Amino acid sequence: MQIHDVLIVGAGLAGMRAAVAVPAHLNVGIVSKVHPVRSHSVAAEGGINAAIREDDSWESHMYDTVKGSDWLGDQDAIEILCKSAPEDIMTLERMGALFSRDAEGRIAQRNFGGLGYPRTCYVADRTGHALVHLLYEQLLKRGAHIYEEWYVTSLIVEEGVCCGVVVLNLFTGELSTLRAKSVILATGGYGRVYLISTNGLINTGDGMAMAYQAGVPLQDLEFVQFHPTTLKSTGILITEGARGEGGYLFNARGERFMEKYAPNAMELASRDVVSRAEYQEIMAGRGVNGCVMLDLRHLGKAKIMERLPQIWELSITYAGVDPVEAPIPITPGVHYSMGGIPTNTQCETPMPGLYAAGECACASVHGANRLGGNALMETIVYGRRAGEFASQYAEQHEIKPISETHLQKEKEKISSIMSRKDGERVGVLRETIGTIMAEHFGISRTRERMEAGLEKLKAVRARIPNLYLQDRGNIFNLELIDALQLHSIMDLAEVLSAGATIREESRGAHSRPDFPKRDDENWMKHTLAFRTEEGPKLEYKPVTITKIPPAERKY
Ligand SMILES: Cc1cc2nc3c(=O)[nH]c(=O)nc-3n(C[C@H](O)[C@H](O)[C@H](O)COP(=O)(O)OP(=O)(O)OC[C@H]3O[C@@H](n4cnc5c(N)ncnc54)[C@H](O)[C@@H]3O)c2cc1C
Question: What is the pTM of this model?
Fold first, then answer.
């Protein structure tokens, strides 16, 4: 058993940024189920938003973000994000981030969807890669205890206070406890509740499921972002930077169809708007084999190779298309979790001692739709703040004694899965849930379709207790990890589907043909789902509006 002042679960950008913010006199531990640089943050492509130019302003960034959120974002949290972003970018630069440069040698910025100013800083189309390696260096320099390839199975809660976690060491298969004065969840998103997603296979929303199991509600899970440009059949992301650099979208008739849907912003409207437009074109029979086309040819080879080298490579490798010579077939695909563990602006969750930051948290800076480039900024601004505030909490509190039962309970759970001789295979159930979610809770959601989805999910839930594993070993039992992740996916699928079915309006990414309008009177509120034996119980809480009153959203 190990004891830390601050314990962080997750070593993506949010978790590592939090660790680096913990003052040197405190002892920090950081746990990750994969090596830190394999966290999904490493896959981020297009960039990170900050108003760093004299003719730009945090107020304008805030306006764009609130509008992008379809007025579901909390404006106090958005204000902090946009105000802090320029200084946080400079801190990354001082740490050694190699941002791409413009002709005058300043940090270059590109256009991104829903922005009124080209304010997305980038490192070619490998921004996440550059930042993850930068923060990993900082983490090593900081001297944190890194539990690499350890899987957290549950939170330890004593008298309503979070005071540690139960972990499985993948190398040995041993379960143990890690205790801490404060715990930060930075476990990333739940994109893999869906079968096909731009997310890594590890993005199963474990942290959210753990919090939910421990009695913390989950907020706004029905808001799932579909990215407008994912590569045909694979779900691989083609960065919004491709449109930011001037790429066009065409339908089968060769029309730049965004003219109809967003005459001013065109391809650079917010993601929900562009994805819906593509979906409508494809449904109306104007797609090309279930896709629309992203055309970069007019940018020329030199620009493509300088700004979008990875896109060039991905497109050739996975679609057999050289974007210098031919348009890329793309479809909208599951990309980002707007919902998560509710936090205030100090990253506190409703449970004392428990903090959350990054994609697993819901502050809520993205509301009903996130703007591209804002997620990376959130991991940096709110990751840092989580480290700072969890440290303050650790300084003011003692380590709590914990009961033996936490470890015992997890041991029993795992041995019951390991000892079953036959039953259901994990992969089959995961595929079943992922397919139900894609078919019934996709871009366009009608009551009928969602209710049928709820029934199917109920049937899968009943099969979960029959899970069995073929691998009974202790060392690197990834089938066991898959089984534990399946429990996360199941819980989150239930919360997401319950919230979506009940929300009778269209706002941001949640789009209902049977309720096509945003309904501020009845639905300008956050969903909170509490766990009960009968399934999620929903409550609601108000949105924080400080500066920008609700208005109609047009691009
Ligand atoms: C392909 C792609 C491209 C993107 N491009 C951009 C972009 O250009 N700009 C932008 O703003 N956003 C982008 N995003 C979104 C953004 O990258 C993510 O929201 C952000 O990086 C999430 O960071 P995080 O630190 O919250 O989580 P992650 O980076 O997902 O890290 C989660 C961590 O939690 C750990 N973990 C999870 N569960 C457990 C467990 N049970 N036990 C132990 N450890 C656990 C994992 O090991 C990992 O270390 C992109 C996303 C994708 C998928």
Answer: 0.97
